[in-house]
Design a protein that fits this description.
By secondary structure, this protein is mainly alpha-helical. It has one domain: ABC transporter involved in vitamin B12 uptake, BtuC (Orthogonal Bundle), CATH 1.10.3470. It is built from 13 helices and 2 strands; from the N terminus they run αααααααβαααβααα. It has a two-stranded antiparallel ribbon. The chain starts with a helix and ends with a helix. The model has no long low-confidence stretch (mean pLDDT 89).
Amino acid sequence: MEKIKQNPIVKKLGFNRIVLVCVLILMYVLFCVASDKFAGLPRILSALNYAYFLGFLSLGVTFVIATGGIDFSIGPVMFCCALISGYCLTSYGVPMLPSLLISILVGFLFGVWNGYLVAYWDVPPFIVSMASMNIAKGIASVFTKTQSVSWPQAAQGGWFRKLVKVGNIPVGLIIFLAAAVICAIILNKTKAGRYILCLGSNREAVRLSGVNVRKWLMLAYVICGVLVGIGAIFFVGAYTTVQPGYGDQYNNEAIAGCVMGGTSMAGGLASIGGTVIGVFIIALLQEGILALGFPKDYQLIITGLIVIVAVYADVVARRRKN
C-alpha cells in the first residue's frame, strides 16, 4: 500500500481522491445493476441538480473547517437567502437580477455575523452556528410571513434556471467546477488561504508571528456565507419552491462531503478537489436510494455513518502522523 501511495502519479493526484473516484464509479455501477430505473441521463441530471447547491455549501464549509471551526447554519441560511430574495421578487416586484444579488448579500451578511462573533467576540463556532441556524429560520419566517415562496419557471421569465441546465446540458456542472477551481486557488495559492489553513494547524503560533488572526478567521466565514448565498440560487434553480423552517438536513450532507474529501475536522488540512468528489458521492447516494424505492430517511442514516467513519479515519491518520 505504501509503495502505491509513493508512486509519483498517485502522489500528484492524491491517493484519497483516487479512492473516492473509484468509490463513486463503483456506486454508480451497483445502483445501475440494482435498479434498471437508475441508468440513464434523467437520473444523472437529477443527481447533478442535487450536487450543485450542496456543492456550494460544502465548498463554503471547507474554508470554515480548515480553520478548526464548524458551521451548522449553512442549510437554514441557504433557505433564508432563497426565501428573502424570492419574496422580494414575487411580492415586492424586485427585478430578477437584483433578487439573485440579494440572495448572495444575505449569505454575505450571515458570514460577517458568524465570522465577527467567532473571531472578535471569541464565541465558540458551535454555539454561533447553532444560534445562527435558529436566527436564519426566524428571519425567513418573519420576512415571508411564514409563507412558502415559488420562483418562476423558465417560461415565466426565470432565465436564471439556465444557470442549472439548458435542455439536457448540465450548465451548472461547468459553473460549479469553475467555482471549485477558484476556491482551490484561493485556499492553496493565496496568502488568505495559507493563513486560513495555518489557523487550523496552530493559531497561537500564527498570532505570535504577527499575523492578524481575527481578520483571516472572519474571512473564512465570509467566504462560506457568500458561497451559501450562491448555493441558494442553484437550489431554487432546480427545485422552485422554498418553505420556511427547513434546511437542517443539508448541514450534515455538506459537512460529510467535505470531510469525506479529506478536510480534517481538526483544521489545518483541506482538499477542495476531495470536497467536490465527496459531494458527487452524497448526491449519487441520495438519487440511488430514491431509485431503489427506499425513503430518504435511509440516506440520513448512511450520511451520519459516513461522517463518523470519515472523522475516525482522520483521527487515526493524525495519530499515526504524530
